[in-house]
Design brief:
The chain is mainly α. It has one domain: Up-down Bundle (Four Helix Bundle (Hemerythrin (Met), subunit A)). It is 81% helix and 0% strand. The chain is built from 6 helices and no strands.
């Protein structure tokens, strides 16, 4: 079942995930001192959510025939409903979606400390779980 589109999106997520891990592994003081680190983490998180949502949308529409999707958070709820991802992963991906929306739509209000902590304290591990659960489903 693994199409080229699915593989590309998973690879994109993994690449951005590695970048985000590098940012949170450098330690908070180093991270926060350099604006390039903050912008790199922001972009990596946006790319992760974008790829995850595109992947979810592809699975829902192309594989399962779901016609109506009402935004990014709805994609993750539908993936849970269809047993593709666990409820815990679905909830956490929904939280990352909200973080992505904050970065994209209200970037002047972004709290980089919050982004760093949310990524470090579970957000990135949930992305890894999301990838594993989707890979298991499509294999």
């Amino acid at each position: 079942m693994v199409s080229e589109r699915i593989r590309i999106l998973i690879d994109d997520m993994k690449e951005s995930l590695e970048i985000a891990k590098n940012m949170v592994n450098m330690g908070y003081n180093t991270f926060i001192r350099d604006v390039r680190n903050r912008y790199t983490l922001r972009l990596a998180l946006v790319e992760i959510v974008e790829a995850a949502a595109s992947l979810g949308l592809y699975l829902l529409r192309e594989i399962l025939g779901v016609k109506r999707i009402e935004g990014y958070s709805h994609i993750f709820r539908k993936l849970v409903e269809h047993g593709i991802i666990s409820p815990e992963v679905g909830e956490e991906m929904g939280k990352l979606t909200k973080l992505r929306n904050l970065i994209i739509h209200k970037y002047w209000e972004v709290d980089d400390t919050r982004i760093y902590r949310e990524a470090r304290d579970g957000g990135l591990s949930m992305v890894e779980r999301f990838i594993k659960e989707v890979e298991k489903y499509v294999s």
